[in-house]
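User: Round two. Same drill as before: sequence, then structure, for each protein.

Assistant: Same drill it is. First protein:
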Amino acid sequence: MNTRERVIQVFLYVVFICYLFLLIKIFFLSRVSISELFNSHRTLVRSINLIPFDSIGEYLSGSTANLKRFAFGNVVGNIVILIPLGVYLPLLKSNTRVIINLLFIFIVSLFVEIIQGLLGIGIADIDDVILNCLGGWIGILGYNSLLFILRDEKKVYTAITVLSVIVGLPIIYYFLFMIRMRF
């Protein structure tokens, strides 16, 4: 591996690690701070939905503008948040089949929802798992489409790294540091 390839690899891993921090913030620290999370006097409010498409159906049938705006943000947010993971998985784990990557995304999403339910952080919802998997699948399709267009894994690796640094890193920075973190 030459120096250019090492630099590209380092940039990709730095952006990926920052993305993981963003996921932790969004999934676990967006509704409760770290100090509140482990406070023994915190009131736990658990809400768990195990009925597929129940929350999405409620959002669609909602009549108020605020509910529709929240629903749109929730549905789109749950899809968008794992698109990068779907892109990064084929880059970081070479020679992995799509079904294995989708299974990994499913397990990560399910794990997040279980932790949210156990710790009483937000709502543990099967619809979130479905939407997260859809987002991961879109990311995998994006990676495969780029691979089809460029026809060279090294070019795809470089292109995704450049896009991650130019577009992804500023977005991650904005959500990590510009939006108030609850510590």
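Second protein:
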Amino acid sequence: MDIEAQLARRIADLRARHGWTLAEFAERSGVSKSMLSKVERQEASPTATILLRVAAALGLTLAELMSEQVASARFLQRGDQPSWTDPATGYERRQVYLSPAMPLELVEVHMPPGKQVAAAASSYALIRQVVWVLEGCLVIQEGPQSTALTAGDRLEFGPPSNVVFRNDSAEVTRYLVAVLRG
């Protein structure tokens, strides 16, 4: 089963477990009822922004939403690490580490030039995170504060606020996100 089909089934299953109607889920997530319905029926591919809103409404991190079963292996080859590409921006996300035994997640992201991904403050209510730029340049807008990072720079996020990750350069930016759940 491909990632889109897995996500659609997982979102529908989790909504059902909560006993929410599409209207209740839409209100909790800030995603329209019609979009949620299309995602669940695989008639639309969810963007990163939509998935972040859905995950937050369900009380999950994006990695927990996307990974039905968490790999508990001490060693996991690159090809076995789950990856996903945002259909709207081409933003690529690879889940490097996620384990039920440790509240740490590691995610590698490739942000295409001239693209951005927005996340609502609710996405950060249950986590702390640090971004470390490995290659390229990244602008992170946290609420009213903007920080420009270049290779080697890192930023620890403050209190939850609306965030935009933006690559204003002409090259792909590669960065690592370390997330602490709980």
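The chain has a mean pLDDT of 92.

User: Perfect.
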